[in-house]
Design a protein that fits this description.
heterodimer; A: about 450 residues; alpha/beta; D-Maltodextrin-Binding Protein, domain 2; six-stranded mixed beta sheet; 14 strands; globular; B: about 300 residues; mainly alpha; MetI-like fold; two-stranded antiparallel ribbon; about 75% helix; flat; Extracellular solute-binding protein (chain A)
């Protein structure tokens, strides 16, 4: 009796659940192509768009970033009194986990910040949740605002298969570099080449100090430290080709092995604090700020906090490489503002994105201590921000930006961050590490 | 159940044929159950069956995205994929820390309290129960600070005795026990409250009898306290086992499953596959497998406890 009614209940709920149809739909063939029905041919006149509420999801929750977007939103609403901006702010992590579902819902926002790479943007393009903005880019001349490397990061082919080429899907406001912060009291003259840098690390170590403070408990910081070193041992184009999954690119090759060997060597020589795998990210940069290490490999997002605590004692440089005039550094741009296919007011959305990335926006970004990604932004007033702005300029002039490795496949963040922890702890040899990451990549590559 | 039903059946047979026996279920009974069943079906059964359905596909979780039929592929992955297999092994190891250790500590405390009526018992019980009341996120964040290798309380405490501190959450062999001990700290209070309450229910005459027979404290514990607590132990074991197996927040906040995969657990894999890795089918398969494992283990615990009473 009992078993029978349980079975009946299951059968009933199976019916209710609507089994028999594949989740998400079997194929894409009968769906409309992702190219927009109407293609913009001239700058839309927003003043004539009537009363519009523009729903925006962004991740600018921290001090200077929040100030920047609030200021620009205010200016935009003043410029177009008929447009009201309904802003939802979420932290990076929260946004990452909700943006895909939000854009696919009935009440989807018009503009969302969708993270680059196959994990978020690629999946959203594949599901036709984002509207390509190539037409608007032509109308507003967006391509002249950025270097081609930065534009490529926001590009996907219409079917979501090719990353780094095809249609443009959005624009970013801020530049990011993962570089080396140094304590001016401990480092008199910053090293300019990798050899000099290693000599300096050894010197700090011999003096009984910690050369590089590193907190890798949260797993992702290891990607930044590893890839910063990788940029100096491998060709920048090889790294880009791998991240964009271009033909013939690989992870398991001698140059990449050299990067893994180098960073493991630094661990063995004691160039990092001893318990980095068990140290949290925030306590690590705070320790650096308190003068407990000479260097810190970190992204420019900690600039403002470090400047607050260290004042003029902190300096910033790109990771030194073989040639001081050809710097290669991990970096890119923050999350691009994109337009959802669900938006009924793509014209207004495009005008908003244009407004967030024009020359006026660049000035607002500088005034609020942010690093504009756009070309020709005004120089900041002083402090470590000057170092950062100069480094950004130098890096872009040399076309030295390499994209984050975790963009590579939807699961790559998980695949590589764990593997780096194992490499650094000596659980995997450098060759085992590159082979393991390669096989995770191949597994995805075969199923795409 | 069987024993209780027998007299009723006998009564039914003896009654007049046209009369419906009072205990027999009538069809109208199902009507009474219907509202509750509808709620249960909508919020539990349908999602469960739907999840089981999704688990048979490779799907990224987005509408308009093609799903490809995977059959039982996602389930074979649970056993063949190294990451998933280790997640389940870790969950079983954590059972020791989340369920077995708290109950042993709880038994010890209950045994002590059974012998000596402590003054201010309620106060001590409240204090020991406190970890259970704190939100798990707070507990995890706090322990992450305690375990911090440079400035954490634990390493500084060890430093006073000249013991060199360890990288508790960053060491491949120490991370899992370190996370497990946080669980022990949280759940021993629960076990203790359940067990001390049970001890108070044991008639004092049994202890008197044991003492007259010349039983020492250990013998007394084995012969009187332990058998008297069988029911409570089963409840405590069931609760803590479920907590152990579905554990997510502690791992998510302290280690993110690292270093490497050394602390990853099934619930964390469900989360990371569904919301980070766009592998919703695989996440559903792990979830269903986890549900099945939890069901099996708690069923076994209750079977054993029932049989021995």
């Amino acid at each position: 009796m009992k078993a029978k009614s349980v079975l009946a209940a299951f059968a009933l709920s199976a019916l209710v659940a609507g089994c028999g149809a594949a989740p998400g739909g079997d194929s894409n063939e009968d769906k409309p192509a992702s190219t927009p029905a109407a293609t913009a041919e001239a700058k839309p006149d927003i003043a004539k768009a009537g009363d519009v509420t523009l729903k925006v999801w962004d991740q600018n929750v921290r001090g200077g970033q929040n100030a920047e977007i609030e200021e620009l939103n205010k200016q935009f609403e003043a410029k177009y009194p008929n447009v009201k901006i309904d802003r939802t702010k979420k932290s990076f992590e929260d946004l990452l986990k909700t943006v895909k579902l939000a854009a696919s819902g009935a009440d989807a926002p018009d503009v969302v910040q969708a993270n680059q790479g196959r994990g978020v943007m690629g999946e959203m393009v594949k599901a036709q949740l984002l509207r390509p903005v190539t037409d608007y880019a032509k109308v507003y001349d967006w391509e002249s605002r950025y270097s081609s490397t930065l534009l490529d990061l926001n590009k996907f082919s219409a079917d979501g298969a090719e990353f780094g080429s095809g249609d443009l899907y959005g624009l970013s406001q801020m530049g990011e570099i993962v570089g080396v912060f140094y304590n001016k009291e401990k480092v008199a003259t910053p090293p300019t080449t990798l050899t000099e840098f290693e000599a300096s690390l050894q010197q700090v170590k011999d003096g009984g100090d910690t050369p590089i403070m590193f907190g890798n408990l949260e797993k992702w910081p290891g990607i930044h430290n590893f890839e910063s070193v990788l940029g100096q041992t491998a060709d920048k184009q090889a790294i880009r080709d791998f991240v964009f999954a271009r033909d013939g690119a690989s992870f398991d090759n001698p140059e990449f092995q050299a990067g893994a060997t180098k960073i493991k060597e630094w661990v063995d020589k004691g160039y990092f604090n001893k318990n980095f795998n068990g140290t949290d990210y925030d306590p690590a940069w705070q320790s650096f700020a308190k003068g407990k290490s000479a260097y810190l490999i970190a992204g420019t997002w900690v600039t403002a906090d470090l400047a607050d605590q260290m004042g003029d004692n902190v300096g910033f440089m790109l990771m030194p490489g073989a040639d001081a005039n050809a710097p290669v550094s991990l970096g890119g741009e923050d999350l691009p503002f994109t337009i959802t296919t669900a938006s009924k007011v793509p014209d207004v959305a495009s005008a908003y994105i244009d407004f967030l990335t024009d020359a006026n926006a660049a000035k607002v970004l500088v005034d609020t201590n942010n690093l504009p990604a756009m070309k020709g932004a005004p120089a900041p007033a002083g402090g470590v921000s000057v170092d950062v702005a100069n480094a950004w300029q130098k890096l872009n002039d040399a076309d030295g930006v390499i994209p984050y490795l975790d963009y590579t496949t939807p699961t790559f963040y998980d695949d590589i961050s764990g593997a780096i922890q194992e490499l650094l702890a000596g659980k995997q040899s450098p060759t085992e590490f590159t082979a393991g990451v390669q096989s995770a990549f191949d597994k995805w590559s075969e199923s795409r | 159940m069987g024993v209780a039903a027998a007299p009723l059946e006998a009564a039914a047979r003896e009654g007049s044929p046209g009369e419906r026996p009072p205990g027999e279920p009538r069809l109208v009974g199902y009507l009474y159950v219907l509202p509750a069943f509808a709620v249960f079906a909508v919020f539990v059964l349908v999602p469960l069956v739907h999840a089981a359905w999704i688990s048979l596909w490779d799907w990224n979780g987005l509408p308009n995205s093609p799903a490809t039929w995977a059959g039982i592929g996602n389930y074979t992955d649970v056993f063949t994929d190294e990451q998933l297999r280790s997640a389940f092994v870790h969950a079983l190891i954590l059972l020791v820390f989340y369920a077995v250790l708290p109950i042993l500590i709880g038994l010890l405390l209950a045994g002590v309290m059974a012998r000596a009526r402590v003054r201010g018992l309620a106060l001590f019980r409240t204090i020991l129960f406190l970890p259970q009341v704190i939100a798990m996120v707070v507990v995890a964040t706090m322990w992450k600070m305690i375990y911090d290798p440079e400035n954490g309380a634990l390493n500084r405490f060890l430093g006073w005795f000249g013991i060199e501190g360890k990288s508790w959450l960053g060491d491949f062999s120490l991370a899992l026990p370190s996370v497990g001990l946080i669980g022990t700290w949280v759940y021993f209070g629960l076990a203790m409250v359940l067990l001390t309450a049970g001890v108070q229910k044991i008639p004092p005459s049994l202890y008197d009898a044991a003492r007259v027979d010349g039983a020492g404290p250990f013998r007394e514990f084995l012969a009187v306290t332990l058998p008297g607590l069988r029911g409570e132990i089963a409840v405590a074991l069931t609760l803590t086992t479920i907590y152990a197996l579905r554990n997510f927040d502690l791992v998510y906040i302290t280690t993110q499953g690292g270093p490497g995969d050394s602390t990853t657990v099934p619930a964390f894999q469900v989360f990371s596959r569904a919301f980070q890795g766009s592998q919703v089918g695989s996440a559903a398969a792990v979830g269903i497998t986890l549900t099945f494992v939890i069901f099996l283990i708690s069923f076994a615990i209750n079977r054993v406890a029932e049989r021995s009473t």
